[in-house]
Structure formats: structure tokens, C-alpha cells
Amino acid sequence: MDISVIVPLYNEEESLPELAQWIERVMDENGFSYEILFIDDGSTDRSWDVVNQLRKTNPRIGGVSFRRNYGKSPALNTGFQRAKGDVVITMDADLQDSPDEIPELYRMIKEDGYDLVSGWKQKRYDPLSKTLPTKLFNATARRVSGIKLHDFNCGLKAYRNKVVKHIEVYGDMHRYIPYLAKNAGFKKIGEKVVHHQARKYGKTKFGLDRFVNGYLDLMTLWFTGKFGAKPMHFFGLMGSLMFFIGLIAVIAVGAIKLYNMHSGNPYHLVTDSPYFYISLVTMILGTQLFLTGFLGELVVRNSSRRNEYEIEEELNPEKNVK
Question: What average pLDDT score do residues 8-16 get?
């Protein structure tokens, strides 16, 4: 099969028939073999009934309906697990993503050799309150991840099948799928300018809280990607530095008192100095950070996945060769 199209949706009953017909037309015009997977994320309208009606006219349509709303990441991950196409295309159900982009995205994966191609909505039809935070969000993501994409959160993306089978999208990590792919060893990540359309039906399902959550998720990905397998390298180093800084400060406080005593200068009890308590707190925090790193190492070393690696290709020697 050439293409799997995954469409996560939540309360999009009005747009689904038009979207399905649009995808079908593009696929038929280009001679692609395909499947369309609608992942209903606990819709409270008739979205799943519409999907069932669409399936009666096109058996290539399938999908999954969640009992309740879990979020876009679980919906995408569920679709990734079921996708059979050589190239996997994801797009939103609100008709803001154009299926006419599919042939070129497919070509970039198959002919140009990209592992992942992300859409870039260079001209957007969103309010300023959404576009400005989005630009800041993307700039931060580029800086932290090292991936030069203009639009990390664009729902229109294309993947080589093995990419979606080797990443796990959870929580709200759908915003950082390119970063997840990079951490999994897929380095050839490209970008394509795509057409963005104004929303035709319904209203947006996302609020400004996604930018706060997105920042926290980005920090999580950065830390796990850099120190997930070696937590002692972070916590141990920071803890050791804090402990020795506190230790030197305590010694300095004591040395100053001894010097004043020896010189006959007025002096106070060590416990009268605020620097003494700051030094003690620094040493305690350093010790706790060091122990956190130690406990993290114990967890990693006892993980059943500690020696699992992503293998790109393997050559086995032939048997019975003299």
C-alpha cells in the first residue's frame, strides 16, 4: 500500500464528508493505493456516525473511536500503530490542511529520501493572538531541538512508515514529533510550504494553555534526549558543584572567624552569620541532587529496555561458508 492517511478528529461532523471526498479525489487522480484512518477522540457530536456512513461508500476508510477525549497525541499514536502504507500522512479534520499537498509530500519521502516532512503554513488565516505565540513557540523549539523547521505544530506531515513504528507519541508530544523522530535516530527531516485555509466549520479546540504545556514538554524532551540514559551526568555534576561550593563557603566563614580571633579583632559566632546557613543549605541541596542522580542510574540500569537500540540495517554472515 502506498499511503495511509491518519485524521485525528474531535467534533468535526460537518467537515468529514468534504474531507473524505477531497482525499479520495487526490488519491484516484494520482493512482495511489491508500487507506484513510479516522481517529475519533471521544467526539460528542455525530462524527463517528458520519465515519460509518463514509465507510459504506468507500471500504478503504477505517478508524477508531475512543470512549472519551484523550487528546491529539493518543489519537495519532493509535493511528500510527495501525498504519500500513509505505508513507504515512497526517492531517487535521477541520479542512485547514489541503489534501492536494499529498502527492508532493509522498514524492519527497519516496524520491528525495526524507524520513519526515513537516508542513509549513507560511501564510496563515489565524488571529494575531494565535500566530504571535506560535512564532515564539517555534523559535524556542528550533533553538532547543536543533531542527530547522518553521512550523513544528503543523498537522500536515508525511512520514516513512518505519518512523511512526519507532516513536511513541504521548501526552501532548504531538507538537514535537520531529524532535521525537530525531531522538529515535531519524535525521533526514525536511519541510514543505503548504496551503493553509481558513476554518470552514466549527471552532478551534486549542487554547493558550497549550503554549505553557508545550514549553514544559519541550524541556522534558530535551532532558530525556540528553540525559535520559545517564541521569548521573546531570544531577551528579550539579550536586557535586553545589556541595563543593557550599563546603568552600563554610570553610571560608570558619577561617574568617579564626583569623579575627587570632588578630584580636571583634568576631561573632559562626551561627550568627547568614552565610553559614546559606552554605549549609547549598551543601544539603548538592547532596540531594547527587543522590537523585544515583537513584536515576539505578532505575536506568534495572530497566528492561536499557540495551535496546534502533538498528537501521544488519548484515548476517552466511552459514556453512568454508
Answer: 94
Domain encompassing residue 21: 3-227
Query: For residue 154, which of 170, 171, 141 has the smallest C-alpha distance?
Result: 141
Q: What angle do CA 223, 225, 227 make, to 5 degrees?
A: 60
How far apart, in whole angstroms, are the C-alpha atoms of residue 70 and residue 74?
6
Query: Does residue 144 share a domain with residue 169?
Result: yes
Are both 194 and 287 inside the same structural domain? no
Q: Compute the distance between CA of residue 99 and CA of residue 82 in angstroms, rounded to an integer.
A: 20
In a domain, 99, yes or no: yes
For 76-106, write each residue's pLDDT tens digit.
999 999 999 999 999 999 998 999 999 999 9
Burial 276-303 (b: 16+ CB within 10 A, else e): beebeebbeebeebbebbeebbeebeee
Q: Where are the alpha helices (DSSP H) in 125-231?
A: 128-145, 161-165, 177-183, 209-227
Domain match, 22 and 42 both: yes
**Cα distance between residue 26 and residue 143, in whole Å:** 36
Q: What is the pTM of this model?
A: 0.75
Structural domain tally of the chain? Answer: 2
